[in-house]
Amino acid sequence: MELVLEYLMKMTLVLSIFLSVLVLPAFCQKPQNAVETDIAVIKTDIAVIKTEIKNIKETVNNGFNTVQKGFDRQNNIIIACIGIPWAILALGATVWGILAHRRSGKDHTLEKQVETLTQEIETLKQQRIVQP
Q1: What is the distance between the alpha carbons of residues 24 and 26, in angstroms, rounded to a whole number?
Q2: Mind spelling out the 3-state secondary structure of the chain?
Q3: For 88, what's the count of Cα atoms within 13 Å in the CB-facing half-sphere?
Q4: Which of 24, 30, 49, 50 would staple 34 via disulfide (CB 3.0–4.6 Å)?
Q5: Cα–Cα distance between 16 and 20 in angstroms, integer?
Q6: How many CA atoms within 13 Å lie on the side-chain side of 84?
Q7: Average pLDDT, stretch 36-50?
């Protein structure tokens, strides 16, 4: 009798485990409308994520534009700090060159006049020596 009871208990245990395994997937399945609801929620979440990514891209682009404007401003300041003194030096050198050229022309003319006058004086001295 004990063997029969033991056999029945084992069979009951095996059958209960087998039936539990058969019934378990039924508890895990969702109804079709729940799956559709989940898909709709996922689509909404994806749309929200896309919007957030778009906003982040715009923010990053605005930041880059601000940095670029800052670099442009700094470049203009650097160019002004270097360019203005160079322009002043170039203008001064040009004016100095023009004035130096004019002076050299005047000096050349004056030298010719001095030579001419010196020759005339020498000529007059010789005439005076010859004709006292």
Answers
A1: 5
A2: CHHHHHHHHHHHHHHHHHHHHHHHHHHHCCCHHHHHHHHHHHHHHHHHHHHHHHHHHHHHHHHHHHHHHHHHHHHHHHHHHHHHHHHHHHHHHHHHHHHHHHHHHHHHHHHHHHHHHHHHHHHHHHHHHHCC
A3: 6
A4: 30
A5: 6
A6: 5
A7: 90
Higher pLDDT, 30 or 73: 73
Cα separations in angstroms, 20 against 23, 25, 47, 87, 112: 5, 9, 41, 95, 130
* 78, two tokens: 């650097």
Task: Return the structure tokens found at 56.
Answer: 């982040």
